Amino acid sequence: MTTKTGIFPVIRILKRQEMIMNTLPLKTSRPLRHLLFAFAGLMIAISAIGIRAQAPPLSLADILIALRSKKVTLAERNQILTGAVKERGITFEFTPEIEKELAATGADADLIAAIRMKSLPPPKPTPEPKPAATPQPTPPPPDYTFYQKRAEANLSKGDLEAALADYNKAVEMKADNPDLYVSRGRAYFNMKSYELSVKDFDKAIELNPKTAIAFIDRGRSYEKLGDRQKALADYKKALELDAANDVAKAEVSRIEAEIAKEAAKNAPPPKPVEVVRPEFINLGSLSASNAVKLVSPVYNTIARQARVEGVVTVEVEINTDGDVVSANAVSGPTMLRQAAEDAARRSKFKPAMFNGEPIKAKGVISYSFKL
Question: Which of 175, 195, 299, 316 has its CB surrounded by the most CB atoms within 10 Å?
Fold first, then answer.
């Protein structure tokens, strides 16, 4: 690893200086010796200038070999190497490990400081290219069904305000959907805003004139507003659209019975005529006003689990004591009929009267099952 342009030419010059001094006669005076030594140093300096002018930077191996050389003293080696490092530089990066090795080989503090100053800066690490971020697709905005489903969930939890807000948003996004108006109308109905519910049912009917459920719901709102005639007209329209609709049948029957009863109550008393006593009289729709005890039906477990709802109409026969002796469900969901018949049999009514005397009677009880 040593070359003519390394540190060794300087070492060889030092060696020649030493040889020249050794060849002097022993009797040479001390001043003459100093003069000759100075002359030899001048020659060394001139040689060193020529060497530095063409010498490359020192390698670690150059410095370590020179430090191990025994040609001159260690102090002189350090002095020469320090100057060479400052003038020529080095080819390696100075690290704590190299510093330990130099110190162990004999490098003094000045030499180590010169090497540290000339140390090549550590190469900058090449940054690894970062993978390009994968663009995330923007999720589509929710459609009206999102708000409709959330409104239904809030309605089932009894949060009417939240349900109404979501129905409003759904209607705003899908103003031509009649089902949304029916659902929002029911929310208004549950909030006792009956006039607003009528407006929503009006819109639903306008969009779909053949929706029986909208007529039924609007009829209920009319009843709450005290307009029984409009309610009856809506129930009849629902029955016209869906002849098998048990709810519409029951509501028509109930209101007609109530109207008939009121008409009979308000009618002038008939002229007394001799009337043949019938076996039964028909009381029409029976309610709490006819009853001494009107038993509510018990929702059976299977029907509740199946979430069956509806109105069951039961025809009953009542004896002269007001006891129900016969109960027969004639309409309504099959799974609910037995419970309705049992409730009817356990009910008791005021005895029907004919010419001031108790008489057997028939009537109809409507039981509404709703979860």
Answer: 316
CB 184 within 8 A of CB 207: no
Domain boundary among 264, 299, 321: 264
Average pLDDT on 25-51 reads 53
What residues form DSSP beta bridges with 333?
A: none
Contacts of 108 (CB under 8 A, 6+ apart): 75, 78
Domain boundary (80, 100, 119) is at 119
Question: Which of the two residues, 122 and 255, has the higher pLDDT score?
Answer: 255
Question: Would 141 be classed as within a structural domain?
Answer: no
The model's confidence at residue 37, banded by pLDDT at 50, 70 and 90, is low
Rounded mean pLDDT, 76-82: 90
* Per-residue confidence band for 42, with pLDDT thresholds at 50, 70 and 90: very low
pLDDT given at position 186: 93
